[in-house]
Amino acid sequence: MRNDNHFKKYVLAFEYSDSSIIAHEIVHLINYLYLDCGIELDRVNDEHQAYLSGWLFKKIENILKSKK
Q: Which of 13, 32, 34, 59 could form a disulfide with 39 if both were Cys (CB 3.0 to 4.6 A apart)?
């Protein structure tokens, strides 16, 4: 969703907080982020994608822990 201030908002939704489901949804989120930013996935040099995956997973994990 694009706002007038050019910031985008992404919603990540999952029914169960199993780590494999979260990881699965993070792949979709990163693909949307890359598409929206015009970034092409590089299967040879994918460190930035791996770091982003880990960072997103940790953020989601922290949010879920705070809700318990």
A: 34
The tens digit of pLDDT for each residue in 26-43 reads 999 999 999 988 999 888
Question: How far apart are the C-alpha atoms of 58 and 31, rounded to whole Å?
Answer: 18
AA identity, residue 9: K
pLDDT of residue 7: 78
Beta-carbon contacts of 40 under 8 Å, excluding residues fewer than 6 positions away, are: 34
CA distance 27 to 31: 6
For the record, the structure tokens of 43 come out as 């299967």
Burial of residue 38, with CB atoms counted within 10 A of its CB: 0-12 exposed, 13-18 middle, 19 or more buried? exposed
